[in-house]
């Protein structure tokens, strides 16, 4: 619980929900006849609806970006250090929107929702959704909120892929795109890590082919393993070394298979807390959305062609020790944008924290974001 | 099956076994009252026993380094491209020894052996063994083979750690040490990967706390996951990309959870074949030996002090795209050796294959090994 809500917080916030009953045809060909989207907003939409910023969440994120749901909350939203009054994404200036993606497990329709056609949980029957599907559903939400054009669409990691897809697929609907710690597609190694995570979940006997809810259980061990593995790829070797080194949990070696090093204890704790609030079917689905993202695929694997229609100005950011989506992956994006004569600003930020850096209050990172967003704010006043 | 045994092969070979009934006290304090060591030898020991080379195996290796056990064997030993007549480790010149390490599952006493005190399988009751324990048992085997001093002790990865430990702990018993693709200790990230692998094995319901044999089962899924994960760390992102890219298994996306990309298919196949011949308790034990290796620990974390007594000449090799034990980790070894005024040759070999490179026929690598071993051969003639 925060002793008191900090002055630069958006404060107490509540999620909102909208029901959509126009069918949504997914990239797979399957159709969601109706669905709900849960979202939060911070700040106020101006009269011309020119100050709206969409934040897209990553694999395990949700719509709760900033502020607190209750005074008892131990922690604020996942990007509270970026979003708030006077912060980089300044809610005194911008109207910020973030939704829980379709297929998520935090309120929007997904595997943990009731399928209206069967009156049972979707579970593993929820269709696989893609980054394109998310962008389409986000655009439908934007319509409902009367936002014709975003001042910016912003995202890190899988969120950055959504931001990129917005700029590619709906070029007139955003003026800026901020693509942070992302990649234009997964590498074979990225896919391999996802496949190990999926195999861990699916081979947990409590998975029951995805119907664990009707067995009153959850695949704790499999999902926990997936999360442990995820954590390794989110942190740099350097950050892990600095944080845990080879420090022993109990001072001396026990020559057994209990927790020995602090890093083991950390991973176990992280995975145990994660499995209590995240849905395994959603985790599977999110990793598939990552695997499938490949905007150049429809353009003969030429990323420059894929981004040819982009109208938004682009900010691309990467972090030096990120080995999940390394700076080289951002270079691919930047090079394609440059080849296509797009306006792009790129910064590679020195950071020891690996992929996780995009979530953390790193001074240079926040300076760059603040400066860039101030430029957008100026435009907002003149739009 | 080889159509015929190649001319530069050591040919048909047979493992040998020795029984030891002098108790061996392990680093953990536990005692093995008796044990067997299985080993192979190639070439002939000369009269002065000055031409013997010990090869130490890595995590999933064994004593079968070169040649074929039968004419039906599909593949030769694991380092057949290095060891044979006229090869880098030339069996026309050297007498080569490799044993299955204690705790292994290929014939030496380990979890799959009968505990003479209980007449039941050791299973999870087999004590945790360390690199130091292995070196001690290897020295006992050397005594039995009348090898007072090795011309060289050679190893890659975990094998390189054993070679390093030989040079540190028994400095008079080797003239050269070849430390390939190794590290002076695991990083927190290395330990984290091991912990995920162990958790996968231990949380498989077929593990039965390690007593799977008495349940007539093996923890296939957990061990398979551990192996899949291992494979990712053995290959470079580059090598995976070159080998698999994002190639689809069935030509088009299936929007489901079956195998989609070639890399997924490869990992599944690799893990399925591995679990049929490797023991899960041994896998756990090997990863612990890796975690525990830290020769500087007893010297105030000063590696230069740890290597101060080394008498062997040292060759240290690393591979550019190895991210499991990167060239930087070899630099740590080299810098410590230089600080301690040891004679050390170092080469960082351009290779796209990642950690696996140490097992592969890479021209520059084999040239360097060949040249270095020819130097040792000259010394052998003059010893």
Describe the structure.
- The structure is a homodimer of 383-residue chains.
- Chain A has 383 residues and is of the alpha/beta class.
- In chain A, 33% of the residues lie in helices and 15% in strands.
- Chain A contains ten helices and 14 strands.
- In chain A, the strands form four sheets. Chain A has an eight-stranded mixed β-sheet with strand order 1-4-8-5-11-12-13-14, with helices on both faces. Chain A has a two-stranded antiparallel ribbon with strand order 2-3.
- In chain A, helix 3 (188-202) runs antiparallel to helix 4 (220-234) and helix 4 (220-234) packs across helix 6.
- The longest helix of chain A is centred in the C-terminal third of the chain and has 20 residues, at 363-382.
- The first copy, chain A, starts with 15 loop residues before the first strand and ends with a helix.
- In chain A, 55% of the residues are buried.
- The mean pLDDT of chain A is 96.
- Chains A and B meet through helix 3, helix 4, helix 5, helix 6 and helix 7 of A and helix 3, helix 4, helix 5, helix 6 and helix 7 of B.
Helix percentage of chain A = 25-40%
Question: Quick one: biggest sheet of chain A?
Answer: 8 strands, mixed
Low-confidence spans of chain A: none
Shape of chain A: globular
- The helix-strand sequence of chain A is EEEEEEEEEEHEHEHHHHHHEHEH
- What's the mean pLDDT score of chain A? 96
What's the total count of β strands of chain A?
A: 14
Structural class by helix and strand composition of chain A? alpha/beta
Helix count from the secondary structure assignment of chain A: 10
Distance between the ends of chain A: 40 Å
Q: What's the multimeric state?
A: homodimer
- C-alpha-based Rg of chain A, rounded: 21 Å
Strand order of the largest sheet of chain A: 1-4-8-5-11-12-13-14
Task: Kindly report the greatest chain-chain contact and the residue count on each side.
Answer: A-B, 54 and 54 residues
Q: Beta-sheet strand percentage of chain A?
A: 15-25%
């Amino acid at each position: 619980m925060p002793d008191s809500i900090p002055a630069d917080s958006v404060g107490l916030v509540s999620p909102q929900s909208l029901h959509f009953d126009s069918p949504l045809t997914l990239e797979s060909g399957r159709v969601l006849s109706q669905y709900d989207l849960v979202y939060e907003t911070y700040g106020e939409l101006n009269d011309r609806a020119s100050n709206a910023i969409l934040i897209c969440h990553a694999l395990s994120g949700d719509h709760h970006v900033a502020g607190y749901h209750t005074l008892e909350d131990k922690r604020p939203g996942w990007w509270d250090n970026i979003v708030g009054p006077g912060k980089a994404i300044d809610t005194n200036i911008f109207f910020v929107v973030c939704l829980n993606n379709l297929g998520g497990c935090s309120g929007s329709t997904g595997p943990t929702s009731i399928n209206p056609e069967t009156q049972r949980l979707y579970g593993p029957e929820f269709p696989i959704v893609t980054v394109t599907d998310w962008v389409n559903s986000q655009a439908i939400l934007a319509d409902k909120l009367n936002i014709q054009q975003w001042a910016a669409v912003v995202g890190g990691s899988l969120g950055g892929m959504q931001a990129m897809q917005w700029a590619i697929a709906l070029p007139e609907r955003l003026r800026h795109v901020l693509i942070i710690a992302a990649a234009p597609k997964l590498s074979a190694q990225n896919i391999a890590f996802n496949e190990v995570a999926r195999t861990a979940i699916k081979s947990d006997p409590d998975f029951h082919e995805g119907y664990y809810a009707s067995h009153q259980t959850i695949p704790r061990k499999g999902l926990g393993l997936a999360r442990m593995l995820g954590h390794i790829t989110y942190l740099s070797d350097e950050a892990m070394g600095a944080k845990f080194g080879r420090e022993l949990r109990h001072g001396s070696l026990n020559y057994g298979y209990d927790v020995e090093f602090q890093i083991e204890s950390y991973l176990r704790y992280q995975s145990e807390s994660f499995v209590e609030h995240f849905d395994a079917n959603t985790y599977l689905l999110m990793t598939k959305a990552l695997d499938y993202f490949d905007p150049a695929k429809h353009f003969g694997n030429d990323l420059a062609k894929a981004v040819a229609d982009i109208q938004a100005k682009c900010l691309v950011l990467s972090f030096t020790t990120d080995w999940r989506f390394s700076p080289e992956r951002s270079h691919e994006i930047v090079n394609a944008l440059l080849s296509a004569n797009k306006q792009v600003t790129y910064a590679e930020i020195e950071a020891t924290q690996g992929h996780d850096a995009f979530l953390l209050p790193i001074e240079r990172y926040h300076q760059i974001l603040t400066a860039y967003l101030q430029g957008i704010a100026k435009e907002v006043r003149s739009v």
